[in-house]
Hints:
Chain A is mainly α. Helix content of chain A is 64%, strand content 6%. Chains A and B meet through helix 1, helix 2, helix 5 and helix 6 of A and helix 1, helix 2, helix 5 and helix 6 of B.
Amino acid sequence: MKQDQKPRPRQLTSFVTFRLARLQASLNAQATSILKTSSGLSLVEWRILQTLEWFEFNTLKQLSDITEIDKGQLSRKIASMVDKGLLEQTPDEMDKRVQHLTLTQRARDICAKAMPIMQARQDLLLKDVSKDDLEVFYKVIDKLEAASKTREIP
Amino acid sequence: MKQDQKPRPRQLTSFVTFRLARLQASLNAQATSILKTSSGLSLVEWRILQTLEWFEFNTLKQLSDITEIDKGQLSRKIASMVDKGLLEQTPDEMDKRVQHLTLTQRARDICAKAMPIMQARQDLLLKDVSKDDLEVFYKVIDKLEAASKTREIP
DNA sequence: ACAATTTAGTTGACCTGTCAAATAAAAAGT
DNA sequence: ACTTTTTATTTGACAGGTCAACTAAATTGT
């Protein structure tokens, strides 16, 4: 009468998030490894530099809002990147609280060097994904992201 | 002749991964917050317990392989969960290196309590995603995951 | 049998991520 | 003008994540 000896599978409730977490772990490891050998940058550093180059803004707050990287982490990371000569901070004229961030020439050089290989990686990642599928993919990400802002579950 | 005063946007090369990273940050914050109030479990603890309940295995190695959580982290987490009375370790008969993990009754109770709310969250996340779109979404995840295993970029 | 290799799990060191409290400068309300 | 509230950034404390070296037990090759 061994019936539920192994009280097995029902629903892996958090399957979407489970899959995403695992994918994320794998993507991070890949990016970290590529960046390390190709530029010496850490993943966060790369993300910060890319975001600053890409978007039309340059303060910690904006960086934190767009990337969802914790502002505490950013504050420290930025300080260390200024030390390393990757970023420059210039105080805002009007608002004495805010600092504007700009890439140094050195940072731009490093990014330029890392870019082709990171671009190749991006191409590799998306090689077998059709344009339509990618569009759906982004659409689903948008929806998940919107829903994930909800803190109270009904 | 101010031309490229702001040497702006080209391609945010790592756009897919950028989007995924941001989504992940948001999902983690949501799950962490829900779990904390509904069960006192941390996100990793929940992931470990769910994975053990869901899959047909129970050793650290297998857990590490399937979740991509670092085995070092797992080793320590498992030890602390044994301390807390969430897991039990029983040594393998044949292979003296391996330990089999099982949820304690306490862990099962906690999971049972957290499950409905986590299930509700999952439903909320996928509420507006059609079956077809979700299928495409998983397909793309599979491809990204496969491509992310490549460490050398051509 | 036994040396060489592989494998499961542990440990140390160190970086990343998160939360909350603290500071200090604006902005809003009175 | 002055108190209250909001906002940008910093700091402290601590959990999570990653890497590499290590131990001990299996497995493989001879």
